[in-house]
TrEMBL record:
UniProt entry keywords in alphabetical sequence: Repeat, TPR repeat
Protein name listed in UniProt: Hsp70-interacting protein N-terminal domain-containing protein
Stretches with biased composition (Basic and acidic residues): 248-266
Region described as Disordered: 46-70, 244-286
Family the entry assigns: Belongs to the FAM10 family.
Gene Ontology cellular component terms for the protein in this record: catalytic complex; nucleus
Domain Hsp70-interacting protein N-terminal: start-end pairs: 9-47
Known function: One HIP oligomer binds the ATPase domains of at least two HSC70 molecules dependent on activation of the HSC70 ATPase by HSP40. Stabilizes the ADP state of HSC70 that has a high affinity for substrate protein. Through its own chaperone activity, it may contribute to the interaction of HSC70 with various target proteins.
Source organism of the structure: Diabrotica virgifera virgifera
TPR repeats: 118-151
Highest classification ranks of the organism: Eukaryota, Metazoa, Ecdysozoa, Arthropoda, Hexapoda
InterPro entries referenced in this protein's UniProt entry, alphabetically: Hip_N, TPR-like_helical_dom_sf, TPR_rpt
Length: 309
């Protein structure tokens, strides 16, 4: 069987074994309990600790001329952490009424006769909607949906009626169902985008209205899109800025971990070559050793190695 871990991990493992030989008390460190338990499970007899400190402290590393100072994260107040918008025209969210907003049975088998009946109800509903009888229009659209629950247009038009009643959540629900039935429904994107605008969801509104314009551009959709675009762009730029800051911070932390791991590796290698004096502190190198085991690569190498033994 080929070795399941890389050469660097094997070298670190060798350094660890050398340290254990020179300082057996290291095996009693809490962080190495898994290793101690493993050795004992094989029948190994470990020496009792002679001078195990209750709290191992790692001495601070002296800075050198070539060493770059580690930049500590400073919590600064970001003036754009909370964007503020003019919410004129926004409304309070409405509550969905499942009893009245019936969605029909999508598994229903349709006959030509039933489809024709649904079309008749739709035309009646459109007539009522144009006359301003919105509640009656919704009632007729609902009857049409129960007859033909697979029509994306019926859901989009009922969503439009809910929008006229300033019920954005009900509109969003209907338009979302319409898009599930027909992903290219321009009216569904249009009315759902407007509903998001009423709720102050600028990004979602812009996304839907852009899609509606891409499918079927009309003057009203274009006007609605122009209305929400400034706020949507502010949010998009703000999120990009936050993402850049996050990536920069993660990169600094990654480079710092690599630097610390290399320094710990070098110190451990040096310590492994030196035999301790008879009267030396048996835990004299424990600080550097303990720091070495903060390197996730070392721990991963040990765990993989023990698994395959």
């Amino acid at each position: 069987m080929s070795c399941p871990i890389g050469k660097d991990a094997v070298d670190k493992l060798k350094q660890f074994i050398s340290l254990c030989k020179s300082n057996p008390d290291i095996l009693h460190l809490p962080d190495l309990k898994f290793f101690k338990d493993y050795l004992e499970s094989l029948g190994a007899s470990l020496p009792e600790t002679r001078n195990m400190p209750s709290d191992i402290k790692v001495e601070p590393k002296e800075a050198t001329d070539t060493e770059e100072p580690v930049q500590e994260d400073v919590l600064e107040s970001d003036p754009e952490s909370e964007l503020e918008f003019d919410m004129t025209g926004c409304v309070e969210p409405d509550f969905i009424d499942d009893m009245n907003q019936k969605m029909g049975d999508p598994s229903k088998e349709l006959s030509e006769e039933v489809t024709d009946q649904a079309d008749e109800k739709r035309m009646e509903a459109m007539s009522q909607l144009s006359e301003g009888n919105i509640e009656k229009a919704i009632e007729l659209f609902t009857e049409a949906i129960e007859l033909n629950p697979t029509s994306a247009l019926l859901f989009a038009k009922r969503g439009q009626a809910y929008l006229k009643l300033t019920k954005p959540n009900a509109c969003i629900r209907d338009c979302t169902r319409a898009l599930e039935l027909n992903c290219d429904s321009a009216p569904a994107y249009k009315f759902r985008g407007r509903a998001y605008r009423l709720l102050g969801e600028w990004e979602l509104a812009a996304k839907d209205l852009r899609q509606a314009c891409n499918i079927d551009l009309d003057e009203q959709t274009d006007e609605w899109l122009k209305e929400v675009t400034p706020n949507a762009k502010r949010i998009e730029e703000h999120l990009l800025k936050k993402e850049r800051k996050k990536k920069d911070k993660e990169e600094r932390e990654r480079l710092d971990r690599i630097r610390q791991a290399r320094e710990a590796h070098a110190k451990a290698a040096t310590a492994a070559k030196e035999e301790p004096e008879d009267d030396a502190d048996p835990m004299g190198n424990a600080g550097d050793f303990y720091k070495l085991f903060q390197d996730p690569e070392v721990m991963a190498a040990l765990q993989v190695k023990f698994y395959y033994i």
